[in-house]
TrEMBL record:
Localization terms from the record: Nucleus
Keyword Transcription regulation: yes
Residue ranges of domain Myb-like in the record: 9-61, 62-112
GO molecular function, one term: transcription cis-regulatory region binding
Positions of the HTH myb-type domain: 9-61, 62-116
Cellular component terms per the entry's GO annotation: nucleus
Designated name of the protein: Uncharacterized protein
Region (Disordered) location: 127-187
PANTHER family: F14D16.11-RELATED
Composition-biased stretches (Polar residues): 128-146, 169-187
Record key words, sorted: DNA-binding, Nucleus, Repeat, Transcription, Transcription regulation
Length: 261
DNA sequence: AAGCTATCCAACCGCCTGGCT
DNA sequence: GAGCCAGGCGGTTGGATAGCT
C-alpha cells in the first residue's frame, strides 16, 4: 500500500513565500501555538501544504532564530559536532541555539566543506585527504581521533579562530564528552552520540553563548529579520515556548505603528 | 552593457520513525 | 502485530544574485 502524499498537490501553492503568507502563518502560530501542521494551512487560510508551513516556520519565521553568517566559533563547533555525529544536522543544530538544521547544512555544503577540502581535509571523514584511503583502512579509533584533533588545531590556527570558545573547557560534563570523543571508539562514541542526542544544553552555558551580547566579539552580523523590522515585538516572544498557545490574543498581532502584520 | 558562470540559500521531495487505533 | 498518519530529517533542486570575462 503506497503512502499517501502529505497533501493534495492540486490547489496547493508552491515556491517562495510572500510576506502576506508569512504574516498569516506567524499570526496563526502565535495565536494558536504549533498544533497539527496538516491543519495549519486550512485554519490559517493558506494555500500551502502543512509540511511547507512547518518548514517555513522552523527555518525562517521562528522568532528565536538568529540570522546572518555563522561565526567562526559556531563554524568550529559545527565541524567538531560533524566529526562526531556525521550528517545529523538536526542534532548539530540542536547544539547551536538560534540556528536551523537547514542553515547549518547549507553552510556546511557551501562554506565549510570547501574550506576543509582546501586545507586537505576530507569533509566526510575529517581525515587528511592524502591519507584518507589509508585512514579508512585503519580501524584504530584513537589514531583517527588524534588526527581529528589535529584537524581542529590546524583549522583554528589558519582561521585565527576562537576555537577555545567553541569547545567546552571548564564544564566537567563537556570535557567528559570531549574525552570520550577523543577515544571515539565504539562504546564511547555511542555514549557521546547518546549524550548529544539526549542532552539539552542549557542556553546560559557560557561556551554556547552566541547570542547578541557576544556577537560583537564573535563577529556575528545580524541580518535583517524576515519581516524587515516591522515586527520587532516578535523578539519579545522568543521564549513563548513554541508549543504554548493562547499566550497572545489577536489584538497583539499588530505592529506598534498600527499596521497589521 | 551583455552574456556566462559560480555561489548561495529557501524550498521541495522522499524516506523514516514513532504514536495511535 | 498491522496499518495509518503526522512530524521530522537529510538530500537535492532551482531561482536569485554576484562576480567575471
Amino acid at each position: 500500500m503506497g503512502r499517501q502524499p502529505c497533501c493534495d498537490k492540486q490547489g496547493v501553492k508552491r515556491g517562495p513565500w510572500t510576506a502576506e503568507e508569512d504574516e498569516k502563518l506567524i499570526s496563526f502560530i502565535l495565536t494558536h501555538g504549533r498544533c497539527c501542521w496538516r491543519a495549519v494551512p486550512k485554519l490559517a487560510g493558506l494555500l500551502r501544504c502543512g509540511k511547507s508551513c512547518r518548514l517555513r516556520w522552523t527555518n525562517y519565521l521562528r522568532p528565536d532564530l538568529k540570522r546572518g553568517l555563522l561565526s567562526t566559533a559556531e563554524e568550529q563547533l559545527v565541524i567538531d559536532l560533524h566529526a562526531k555525529l556525521g550528517n545529523r544536522w538536526s542534532k548539530i543544530a540542536a547544539k547551536l541555539p538560534g540556528r536551523t538544521d537547514n542553515e547549518i547544512k547549507n553552510h556546511w555544503n557551501t562554506h565549510i566543506k570547501k574550506k576543509l577540502i582546501k586545507m586537505g581535509i576530507d569533509p566526510a571523514t575529517h581525515q587528511p585527504l592524502a591519507n584518507s584511503k589509508a585512514a579508512t583502512s585503519q580501524s584504530t579509533d584513537t589514531a583517527e581521533s588524534a588526527k581529528s584533533s589535529e584537524t581542529r588545531e590546524e583549522l583554528s590556527m589558519k582561521e585565527g579562530s576562537h576555537t577555545d570558545m567553541a569547545l567546552p573547557t571548564d564544564s566537567s560534563e563537556q570535557s567528559s564528552w570531549l574525552e570520550s570523543g577523543n577515544n571515539a571508539g565504539g562504546q564511547d562514541q555511542e555514549q557521546l552520540v547518546n549524550w548529544l542526542s539526549e542532552t539539552d544544553l542549557p542556553m546560559d552555558e557560557p561556551w554556547l553563548n552566541f547570542t547578541s551580547s557576544n556577537d560583537d566579539v564573535l563577529g556575528i552580523v545580524e541580518g535583517p529579520l524576515p519581516w524587515d523590522g516591522a515586527a520587532d515585538w516578535l523578539l519579545d516572544y522568543q521564549d513563548f515556548g513554541m508549543c504554548s498557545s493562547n499566550l497572545i490574543d489577536n489584538s497583539t498581532l499588530h505592529s506598534s505603528d498600527g499596521s497589521n502584520f
